[in-house]
């Protein structure tokens, strides 16, 4: 018989650093386009797994010694390679016991209709604005889980002020996958509250002033993630030299929206991203480094 303990044991064996199982009732009230029951109508629960990104990959970016390993091993490798193998193995175990497993990786380059945010980690995102529902009571495709909501439902963690999901022991240094299933597994309590105490350290650390009380402005982030700030060690004297807003841009004072961010992307070509589509993180994830240090000092990890 398939049990929660067995699922957690296998998930850890296959490489998960944290596992939680959330009852499907935790998703009641979710928008249709985010609702796991729209993916699997008989779903009983969602299995959530977190994978750590080694702390050193953040520290060497913070110390401006290496940027590429974080991008390639963290966002790119975990989401594009490791997560797939992990999910397919887990799905096999669940299917062999006679249940369904709808595996959910991080959909990095798509945004549901009406979601105008972007993903700073990749070259660009596409909003599914032309999709149509097949019937009035059906969701507009694609249904894409809200990972923050799912992490909370599975008892793994919750988003902080930065918008990044904070997990006990690992803080923001994690990636996630989920499995929607009809297996009758014992569930964990949802994560209540947050590790975030709204200290503002992430906000103060961001060279592009992309974080505010309202959360992260993803277009602003995308510009400074790519290295528009003076603190980028690959910055050259002739970068934007004829642009009257150069100083405001380098100081993180100019505000970018979807159009102006996309317009400046071609200039932010400090390290190659074309082979994979994943953008090197030239802000060094200053927000997450500051958050991790704060949570550690405060004894909240
Ligand atoms: S740095 Fe502080 S405010 Fe920002 S997410 Fe972390 S705990 Fe929350
Ligand atoms: S520090 Fe970097 S990743 Fe964090 S919000 Fe600012 S630009 Fe984005």
Oligomer: single chain
Residues in helix, %: 25-40%
What is the helix/strand order?
HEEHHEEEHEEEHEEHHHH
Beta-strand portion reads 5-15%
Alpha carbon gap, first and last residue: 35 Å
Q: What's the tally of helices? A: 9
The small molecules bound here are:
iron/sulfur cluster
Strand order of the largest sheet: 1-2-8-3
The count of domains is: 2
> Uncertain segments of ≥5 residues (pLDDT<50)?
none
Tell me what the structure shows.
This protein is an alpha+beta fold. The protein folds into two domains: 4-181, no CATH class; 201-297, no CATH class. Helices cover 30% and strands 13% of the residues. The chain contains nine helices and ten strands. The chain has helices at residues 4-13, 55-62, 68-96, 147-153, 201-205, 218-225, 246-250, 258-264, 286-297, and strands spanning 18-23, 45-52, 101-104, 110-111, 126-127, 158-159, 165-166, 174-181, 211-212, 215-216. The strands form four sheets. A four-stranded antiparallel β-sheet has the order 1-2-8-3, sandwiched between helices. Strand 6 and strand 7 (165-166) form a beta hairpin. The longest helix has 29 residues, at 68-96. The mean pLDDT is 96. One iron/sulfur cluster binds next to helix 6 and helix 9.
């Amino acid at each position: 018989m398939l049990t929660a303990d067995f699922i957690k044991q296998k998930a850890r064996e296959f490489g998960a650093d944290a596992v939680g199982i959330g009852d499907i009732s935790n998703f009641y009230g979710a928008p249709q386009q985010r609702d796991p029951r729209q993916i699997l109508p008989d779903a009983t629960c969602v299995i959530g797994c977190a994978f750590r990104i080694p702390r050193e990959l953040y520290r060497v970016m913070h110390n401006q010694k290496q940027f590429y390993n974080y991008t390639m091993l963290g966002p790119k490798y975990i989401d594009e390679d490791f997560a797939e193998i992990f999910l397919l193995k887990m799905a096999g175990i669940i299917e062999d016991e006679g249940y369904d497993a709808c595996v959910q990786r991080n959909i990095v380059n798509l945004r549901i209709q009406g979601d105008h945010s972007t993903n700073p980690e990749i070259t660009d995102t596409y909003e599914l604005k032309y999709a149509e529902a097949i019937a009035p009571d059906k969701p507009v495709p694609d249904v894409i889980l809200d990972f923050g909501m799912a992490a909370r439902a599975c008892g793994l963690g919750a988003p902080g002020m930065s918008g990044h999901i904070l997990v006990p022991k690992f803080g923001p240094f994690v990636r996630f996958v989920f499995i929607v299933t009809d297996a009758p597994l014992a569930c964990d309590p949802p994560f209540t509250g947050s590790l975030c105490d709204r200290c503002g350290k992430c906000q103060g650390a961001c060279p592009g002033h992309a974080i505010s009380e309202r959360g992260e402005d993803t277009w602003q982030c995308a510009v400074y993630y790519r290295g528009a700030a003076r603190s980028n060690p690959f910055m050259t004297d002739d970068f934007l030299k004829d642009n009257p807003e150069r100083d405001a841009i380098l100081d993180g004072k100019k505000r970018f929206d979807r159009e102006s961010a996309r317009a400046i992307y071609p200039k932010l070509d400090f390290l190659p991203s074309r082979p994979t589509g994943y953008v090197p993180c030239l802000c060094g994830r200053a927000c997450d480094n500051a958050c991790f240090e704060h949570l550690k000092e405060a004894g909240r990890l």
